[in-house]
């Protein structure tokens, strides 16, 4: 019994060491980590390992818009300081004023619109090496695992998070990214009986998270932060009513 | 194409004296100097010229006709005066030269449009010189010699159209070619009193009878032979050269050469308190080939490390082939950068803005400046005009971003036509067809009417609706035009998150 307790302790300590040496950069202050609200539980140590590569996969224009929205929300959590962010893309559809909904001042983002995808990874890597940036967003459908590894190495040095929007990828292979997400839009959230379109709501699937638990949530953006969406709230209420 | 302007100061020395002593204005007077034991008139004022007194006359002869003629000693520093006038002309063109004892030549290529055309440019220079008290004649032509000739002997309009010098020269006397006196005498003796009479003779005949000089002068007037303009202040470009004893073929060698050249340029920039915005490296290969690379910066820089890093990115585009024997580094664009600014810049190396600027310089040198931009709000409601692109990293927004407008996160490059069925006019559609797919509208918000700004362009207004279909996709649709007046058309313009 005593032995197993010791063993558990050793395992826990080793896990911590693996986490901190496995490419995931943890800062000593937990305040630094962006607060993702209900999603926090899925991540190792209950904080989002934002200093890494994050893939977002979308397959059509509607999901791409939802993904852009979710990424913008995430970016607003990351861009708390005065730093700027870089948005690299080839066929950009993002409309800068639309970022205002997600609490981002659009002029704090430097847009780099490339003519071809050839220079994309070089640009993203160069940007990731510059630790004066808050984050780098790249819109690239396909990325070679070796290229992603290069980005990961750059991040380990500079600590700049990298969000990759993969719109219509040819295949979703198993890459070394820190997290992989898929966002699909669902009916917006509006108080019962009121007309009009409400807060955007998405089905957020966390397909992969290193050292964490993948999951599936219904999330909404209430203009300030992420909140649990309608069905989950109902389920919670159901639980309370049952418990009550 | 080159354009030149010749300015002839007809009474330069006399005008100068009249400027110094205003009492002499409108007076006939002459300037004299001793020559071979006699006092000879060197230059005359305009009024003296009208009396028929010519430079070169002996003073005693002139005084015999006009006993009360005023005369003064010639000031030997006339060249200096002409040089200072040439420098004054810098406000009109960067290349000005002295031509003969009493003329200026200006290279006006590419300068005249700033004054609204050659006529206005010409007027501007002549009236300003005349207001300054100088009697001038001037002309504009394709060649320096033609401008010189028309300024002195021309009787027609002094601005000669491009290519028109041959026609104008026909009517001018042979003196307009600036030939030596014996040649002119011989021409006149043969009755060739106009250039047009001998201009078309075969070159061999002209050479045999009048010498090579006639052909040369004719060639320079017509533009078939080049003529060199010696500028008063030669432009001093930021150029450094590095010849190599052995041809350089390796990347480290090129890197070393770049560093050396940059060191020289940075030293000069340091002395002149300037920083470069653009630098070009030209490599001359042993086989005669040329290799060129260029870098640009977002702000004036004379930091050696930063500049050499920018060039390092370009080294692999240089093909040394058999070897490079001469490196030339130019800085075509420089801007003021005071020492204090630079010091701040150094202190700021740990600062973030500077790191971002450096990063963008590096990116720009590879992907071009056009790819990098930021967006600032503009005071327009029309979505396409509501943002303004800027390439400046530090520019702050002049107006705040609009607070309560709902804008999609993803906007189409141009609105796309859709088929709709709308139950009642001025209501959002029940369903719409986009790319062959039927979307049933479940929720909708709107309309938000946006008028086309009539002072910018004409057209119909748009009524924007935010709609959601049964699958949860959110769209930004608009109807163009009113019901009733026009046949309304529906478009999709963006996607909401």
Question: What features would you describe in this structure?
Answer:
The complex is a heterodimer of chains A (244) and B (497). Chain A is of the alpha/beta class. Chain A has a domain of 147 residues: 3-Layer(aba) Sandwich (Rossmann fold). Chain A is built from 5 helices and 9 strands. Chain A has a 9-stranded mixed sheet with strand order 3-2-4-5-1-6-7-8-9. In chain A, helix 3 packs parallel to helix 4. With 497 residues, chain B is of the alpha+beta class. Chain B has 4 domains: 235 residues, Reverse transcriptase/Diguanylate cyclase domain (Alpha-Beta Plaits), CATH 3.30.70.270; 125 residues, DNA polymerase, Y-family, little finger domain (Dna Ligase, domain 1), CATH 3.30.1490; 33 residues, no CATH class; 87 residues, no CATH class. Chain B contains 15 helices and 19 strands. Chain B has a 6-stranded antiparallel barrel with strand order 14-15-16-17-18-19. In chain B, strands 5-6-1-7 form a 4-stranded antiparallel sheet, sandwiched between helices. Chain B has a 4-stranded antiparallel sheet with strand order 8-11-9-10. The two termini of chain B are 57 Å apart. Classes of the chains: A alpha/beta (244), B alpha+beta (497). At the A-B interface, helix 2, strand 3, helix 3, strand 6 and strand 7 of A face helix 15, strand 12, strand 14, strand 16 and strand 17 of B. Strand 3 of chain A pairs antiparallel with strand 12 of chain B, so a sheet runs across the interface. Chain B: InterPro entries: DNA/RNA_pol_sf, SulA_CellDiv_inhibitor, UmuC. Chain B: It holds the Pfam family IMS. Chain B: Keywords: DNA damage.
């Amino acid at each position: 019994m005593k032995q197993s307790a010791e063993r558990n302790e050793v395992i826990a300590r080793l896990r911590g060491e693996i986490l901190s040496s496995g490419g995931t950069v943890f800062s000593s202050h937990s305040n630094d980590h962006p607060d993702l609200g209900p999603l926090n539980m899925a991540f190792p140590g209950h904080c989002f390992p934002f200093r890494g590569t994050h893939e977002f996969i979308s397959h059509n224009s509607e999901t791409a818009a939802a993904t852009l929205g979710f990424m913008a929300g995430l970016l607003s959590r990351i861009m708390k300081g005065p730093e700027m962010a870089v948005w690299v893309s080839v066929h950009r559809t993002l409309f800068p004023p639309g970022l205002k909904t997600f609490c981002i001042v659009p002029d704090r983002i430097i847009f780099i619109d490339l003519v071809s995808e050839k220079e994309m990874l070089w640009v993203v890597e160069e940007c990731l090496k510059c630790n004066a940036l808050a984050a780098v967003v790249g819109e690239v459908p396909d990325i070679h695992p070796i290229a992603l590894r290069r980005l990961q190495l750059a991040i380990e040095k500079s600590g700049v998070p990298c969000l990759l929007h993969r719109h219509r990828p040819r295949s979703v292979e198993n890459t070394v990214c820190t997290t992989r997400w898929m966002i699909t839009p669902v009916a917006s959230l509006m108080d019962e009986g009121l007309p009009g379109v409400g807060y955007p709501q998405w089905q957020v699937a966390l397909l992969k998270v290193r050292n964490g638990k993948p999951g599936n949530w219904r999330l909404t953006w209430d203009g300030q932060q992420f909140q649990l969406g309608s069905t989950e709230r109902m389920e919670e209420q159901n639980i309370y009513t049952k418990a009550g | 194409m080159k354009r030149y302007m010749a300015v002839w100061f007809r009474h330069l020395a006399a005008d100068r004296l009249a400027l110094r002593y205003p009492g002499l204005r409108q007076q006939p007077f002459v300037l004299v100097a001793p020559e071979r034991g006699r006092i000879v008139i060197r230059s005359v004022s305009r009024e003296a010229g009208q009396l028929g007194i010519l430079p070169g006359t002996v003073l005693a002869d002139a005084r015999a006709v006009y006993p009360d003629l005023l005369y003064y000693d010639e000031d030997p520093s006339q060249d200096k005066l002409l040089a200072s006038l040439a420098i004054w002309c810098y406000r009109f063109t960067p290349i000005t030269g002295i031509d003969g004892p009493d003329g200026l030549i200006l290279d006006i290529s590419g300068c005249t449009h700033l004054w609204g055309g050659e006529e206005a440019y010409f007027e501007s220079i002549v009236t300003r010189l005349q207001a300054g008290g100088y009697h001038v004649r001037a002309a504009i032509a394709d060649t320096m010699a033609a401008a010189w000739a028309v300024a002195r002997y021309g009787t027609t309009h002094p601005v000669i159209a491009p290519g028109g010098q041959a026609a104008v020269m026909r009517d001018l006397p042979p003196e307009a070619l600036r030939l030596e006196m014996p040649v002119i005498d011989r021409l006149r003796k043969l009755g060739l009193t106009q250039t047009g009479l001998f201009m078309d003779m075969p070159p061999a005949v002209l050479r045999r009878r009048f010498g090579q000089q006639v052909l040369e002068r004719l060639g320079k007037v017509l533009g078939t032979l080049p003529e060199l303009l010696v500028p008063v202040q030669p432009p001093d470009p930021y150029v450094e050269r590095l010849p190599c004893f052995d041809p350089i073929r390796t990347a480290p060698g090129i890197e070393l050469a770049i560093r050396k050249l940059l060191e020289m340029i940075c030293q000069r920039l340091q002395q002149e308190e300037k920083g470069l915005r653009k630098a070009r490296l030209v490599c001359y290969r042993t086989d005669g080939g040329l290799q060129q690379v260029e870098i640009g910066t977002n702000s004036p820089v004379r930091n050696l490390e930063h500049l050499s890093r920018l060039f390092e990115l370009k080294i692999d585009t240089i093909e040394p082939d058999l070897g490079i024997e001469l490196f030339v580094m130019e800085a075509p664009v420089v801007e003021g950068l005071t020492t204090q600014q630079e010091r701040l810049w150094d202190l700021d190396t740990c600062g973030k803005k500077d790191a971002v600027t450096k990063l963008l310089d590096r990116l720009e040198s590879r992907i071009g400046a056009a790819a990098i931009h930021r967006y600032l709000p503009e005071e327009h409601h029309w979505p396409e005009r509501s943002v303004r692109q800027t390439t400046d990293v530090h520019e702050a927004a002049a107006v705040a971003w609009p607070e309560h407008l709902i804008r999609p996160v993803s906007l189409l490059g141009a609105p796309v036509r859709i088929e709709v069925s709308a139950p009642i006019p001025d209501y959002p559609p029940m369903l719409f067809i986009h790319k062959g797919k039927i979307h049933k509208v479940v929720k909708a918000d709107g309309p938000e009417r946006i008028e086309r700004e009539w002072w910018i362009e004409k057209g119909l207004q748009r009524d924007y609706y935010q709609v959601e279909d049964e699958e949860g996709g959110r769209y930004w649709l608009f109807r163009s035009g009113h019901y009733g007046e026009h046949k309304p058309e529906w478009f999709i313009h963006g996607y909401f998150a």
